[in-house]
């Protein structure tokens, strides 16, 4: 239905929208267009605007890029579902009638309010080979311990473990709020019908939590692909790029190697991945969401 607004009201509406539109264009749309254009220009510090596909050819031949992309996909594939499952389990637990649930909720949420650099330094102490907490605990059982961040086979897993510890409590808050918003009438009706706990969870709780699950899923994937702070403190992408993730690789090319053109190519790849994930989430998962 077309709204027939007076012209002065239309102008007034656009004036109200202008500050937000200006900021959106200045910090989102214009940088995206400039990044896309720069990805087709010459590499290095030269200010050459000549069109070229060399950056994309180099991307396909860059072994480091393929390793970084593999690391990023594995990182997201592990941290996202594990964090969400733990968050849901913790929310179900602290939503029940248990002793000290307020203190338990606070304990679960505490890692979330810590700054990322602080979290990285805490886990750096945990992972330090000689004096680290984990190796000291293993030493009680006669084990010499591991080089958690220096072993290419363990370093990415160690990074995942820290991320899960930090983010599960954050996602728990959303699930807990959603659980408290579900009417008790559903559970009373299920109890009258003799429904088991598992059936109630599968048939009532999980479907009604789908809007929250979609929200948490989107945030979890965004967090998985924007991790960069922890890498500065823990590994700087090492050893031998075993923990190098896509956003950190973009930072390296832009500010360490001063290759803005290639960093733009990598940014286009990152944005493309996020667009594909967004289409899947809103095009496929959205259809399974039950809104009340």
Automatic annotation (TrEMBL):
GO terms for cellular component: plasma membrane. It is found in: Cell membrane. Belongs to the binding-protein-dependent transport system permease family. The keyword Transport applies. This is Carbohydrate ABC transporter membrane protein 1, CUT1 family. The chain crosses the membrane at residues 12-33, 73-94, 106-126, 156-178, 204-222, 261-285. It is a multi-pass membrane protein. Keywords: Cell membrane, Membrane, Transmembrane, Transmembrane helix, Transport. Pfam families: BPD_transp_1 (PF00528). Its main location: membrane. Residues 69-279 form the ABC transmembrane type-1 domain. It comes from the Bacteria. It comes from Neptunomonas antarctica. InterPro entries: ABC_transporter_permease (IPR051393), MetI-like (IPR000515), MetI-like_sf (IPR035906). GO terms for biological process: transmembrane transport.
């Amino acid at each position: 239905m077309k709204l027939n607004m007076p012209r002065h009201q239309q102008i007034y509406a656009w004036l109200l929208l202008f500050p937000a539109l200006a900021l959106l264009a200045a910090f989102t749309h214009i940088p995206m267009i400039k990044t896309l254009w720069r990805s087709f220009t010459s590499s290095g510090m030269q200010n050459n605007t000549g069109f070229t596909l060399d950056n994309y050819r180099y991307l396909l031949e860059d072994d480091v890029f393929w390793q970084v992309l593999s690391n990023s996909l594995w990182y997201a594939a592990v941290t996202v579902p594990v964090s969400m499952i733990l968050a849901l389990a913790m929310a179900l637990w602290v939503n029940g009638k248990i002793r000290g649930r307020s203190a338990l909720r606070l304990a679960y949420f505490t890692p979330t309010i810590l700054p990322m650099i602080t979290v990285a330094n805490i886990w750096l102490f945990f992972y330090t080979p000689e004096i680290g907490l984990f190796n000291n605990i293993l030493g009680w059982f006669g084990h010499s311990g591991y080089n958690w961040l220096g072993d290419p086979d363990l370093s990415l897993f160690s990074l995942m473990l820290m991320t899960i510890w930090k983010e599960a409590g954050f996602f728990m808050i959303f699930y807990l709020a959603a659980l408290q918003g579900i009417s008790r009438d559903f559970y009373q009706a299920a109890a009258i019908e003799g429904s088991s706990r598992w059936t109630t969870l599968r048939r009532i709780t999980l479907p009604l939590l789908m809007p929250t699950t979609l929200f948490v899923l989107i945030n979890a994937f965004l967090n998985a692909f924007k991790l960069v702070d922890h890498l500065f403190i823990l590994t700087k992408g090492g050893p031998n790029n075993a923990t190098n993730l896509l956003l950190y690789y973009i930072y390296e090319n832009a500010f360490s190697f001063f290759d803005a053109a290639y960093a733009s190519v990598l940014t286009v790849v990152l944005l493309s991945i996020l667009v594909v994930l967004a289409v899947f989430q809103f095009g496929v998962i959205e259809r399974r969401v039950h809104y009340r």
